[in-house]
Each structure stands twice: as structure tokens, then as C-alpha cells.
Design a protein that fits this description.
Number of domains: 2
Structural class: alpha/beta
Helix content: 55-70%
Distance between the termini: 63 Å
Largest sheet: 5 strands, mixed
Order of helices and strands: HHHHHHHHHHHHHHHHHEEHEHEEH
Strand content: 5-15%
Length: 478
Amino acid sequence: MIYLDQKPQIGVVLLLLFTAVASRFYGIWEWDLVNDEYFTATKAYERYASIINPAYYSLVVLTYKLFGDAEWLSRIPAFILAVVSIPVLYFSWSRNIGRNAALFASGILIFSAWHLWFSQYARFYIGVLLFSSLAYFFFFRAIYVEKLSHLIWAMVFSVLAVSFHVTAIFVPVSVAVAYLVIFLFMKKEECVNFKNIKIYLVLCLIAGVLITPVLYMVLDRWVATSQTWGYGAILIIPQLVKYIQVPIVITALFGWLVVLRKDHVAATFFFAALVVPALFLIAASPFMAISPSYAFYILPVVVLLAGIACEEVRKHMASTHSFIVSAVTFFLLIATLLPSFASHFLDRTSFHFNSVVYFVDDNFQEGDRVLSFKPGFAFPDGRVIDTVPFISFERDNTVDWRKELQPLLDVEGRTWIIASSKRKPLASGLERWLFCNAKLVWQKHAVRLDYEVNGYQIYIVSDKTKNNQETSTCIQGG
């Protein structure tokens, strides 16, 4: 049996807390707002009163009221939740899988680039992760300990996770699947508390009837946005693995095999916790805009399995080696994560979006307009800019970019187009149109130690750049 109830050590909790603060706070006030952070920072007062995903916006509004309305303060709730999530993972899961495995898992979480990113990102993701982690803890414990209170706490934390983002509903849903499999096929397992399992399955039937209309309404609104910036059913799982980081996923796979060998019940729980959200991503990707980040709540499960793998190696080496030496798997894993961990800070310190703003500002002429794919573009002096209305994301291949951008060629004056530069290329139609009708005048990329690419490009469109390439692509209407 994998279940191991050990009391966490307070000294370790404090050490993890200190490390989390030190690694998550640096630069949080300095980094540019990126991507959807702009909407959190500027629209929190509009969104916190909504019944859908209100939690993070409410925390931002509270932060503004306490400390002022500087936009970077919208990251403070994410920072606090992230710092808390690391020692909480150790403190809670020590009572389920043992102190060492939980410690290894918490250490992996510290160096997780995905966790680090959302620790300094003014969105709801870290809130979902923290409360999902606690929900998983109590759901897992309810299998082995005959206390109804564990089930109650699991549902409370599930509701809190959903209050940050509705996709966290797949935490209790995945557990329901696991419980159902355990109930139907593992009735001979003496360690299982079937009373809690039966109670939860009945509650799921009742809750399903009550909340299905609400979930349908949310899904309908989501699909109605007609946004298509998702990765698609084929690529979304590889992208999820990339976000989690391949070394962590591989180690977690070995951890799950360890669990499977020792405890089929626990293996079923972890399997459902990972596979059900993944199936949702695959099924939803073809018809709605969905990101692997919407399954961020599975990260604790993955690092816990990786921690179990590290502890299994340590136990096999413990009789002949010291703790430090026997923890070789953990240290090797951390070594593979260091380039991405360091790149987070190198990226933020080596490139600021202000470089883009200053270049456009220095060369801006009366009558110019700006099309920025990064929301919230503004000059430092706050003067009014003629901006082109938002079309879509610059990597959206469903847009007829020639049709959308053609009006820029029919007006007087110049248009500045600002697009991000990533490993993933721009939408083919946009790239072709820029090649034929625009001139690249500036680009810069951040310094990184890993394979990621992050930067910006500035194009200018004018009478002088129109149809500037005499190629077959442009002649045919690029």
C-alpha cells in the first residue's frame, strides 16, 4: 500500500516557505504586464461581482483597496497563493505519501517553470492549483481513513478551486471517476473506506442534476466567443507535457508505475486525476479556445508522482548511502529544470516591452496609427493614439488576414504593427501579408538558457511598403 501517514516537520515547512518567498517575489513589481494580465489589472472591478470565476478578481480588488491601484499589485494575490502552495503541498501530502516523497514533490514544485510563471502572473491559475491540491489531498485521504470530514473538506476546497476558474470542476469529476472504478472493480480491497466512496458517488449524482444547467450555460458562452487560439486535439497534450516539463513528466510516469506495483487503488486515483482532465482538453479543443493552462491543477498530482519516484530510488539506496547521495534522482531532476528556472528571470530582466513602446514613440508621426497584438499599448505621456481595433491573436490561422488588413493599405499615413516573436510562427496568412506589404523595422528577443523564444517585432505599413515583394505569392494577392 502506498498510503503512508507521517507527521510533517515544521522546520521543513518554514524552509520551504522561505525558499518560496525568495524565489517568487524577486522582480514582481518590475516585470511588464503580459498577455491576459492586462485584463485582470484593468477590469477587476468589473469582473469580481460575477458569479463565474470571481475569486481572483475579488482578491485583486481587495489588494487595490489596501495598497493602491498600481497595476503590478494585481500580481500580489498570485504571489501569496503560490508561496503558500509549496509548503502546503508538503504539509498536507506528508500525511498521505510520507514526508520524504512530499518533500521531493515540493522541491520539484519550487523549480517548476510553470509554477514559477504563474506565481508572478496576475491571473487565477495559482488559486486553482492551491485549492485543487488540497481537494486532491482530502479526496485521497477519504479513501483510506473512515472520516466523513475528509470528504466534506475535499468538496469545500473543490468549490474554492472552481470559484477561481470553472475548469477546476474536473477535480471532483476525475475523483468521481476514480471512486466509481474503485467501487465497481476493487471491492476486495480491505484498506478502502467504501462508505465515503458510496456517499460521494450519491452526492455527485445529486450535484450533477443541480449544476449541469449552470455548466452548460458557461460552456455555451465559452463556445460563443468563437475564439480559436487553442492548439487542437492533436497538439494540446504534447503542449501540456511541454508546459509541465518533460523531465518531470517522465519521472512522474515512473512514480505512477511504483504506485501501480504497490497499490492499485492509489494508482487508479492518480490515473483518473490526470487522464480525465486530459480527455477534456482533447475533446474540447476542436470547437473552443482552450489552453493546456486550463489543466494547471493537475501539476500537484504530477509532481507528487515524481516525488514518489525520487523517494523509491532513495529507499533502495538508503542502506548503503547517505540521504544526500541516495536522493540522486531528485537532484538530477532539479538540474534539468534549472535552465528554464533561470531563464524566467533572465527573460524578464533582459527584455522589457517598454523597448517597443519607446521605439514607436521616438519614430511616431502625426497621422500614424498602431495595431498592437499586445493589449494595453500606450505611450508614456498618455497621449491619445489612433489604434486599429483588435482583430484576433497573431497566430490565429482561422482569420482571413488579407481581408482584415487590406483597409490599412487604403488609408493615408503609416500603421505600426506590433507582434510577439515566439518559437511558434505567426499565422500563415498574417506572415504572408506582412511579407508582401510591410517592412520589419525592429525586433528584439530576451536572453534565455532553454529552447523557448520570447520577443517582439515591429512592422511598418505605408504606401512605400505596399506590394513591396514581386513574388508569385504577393502577385496572387498575398
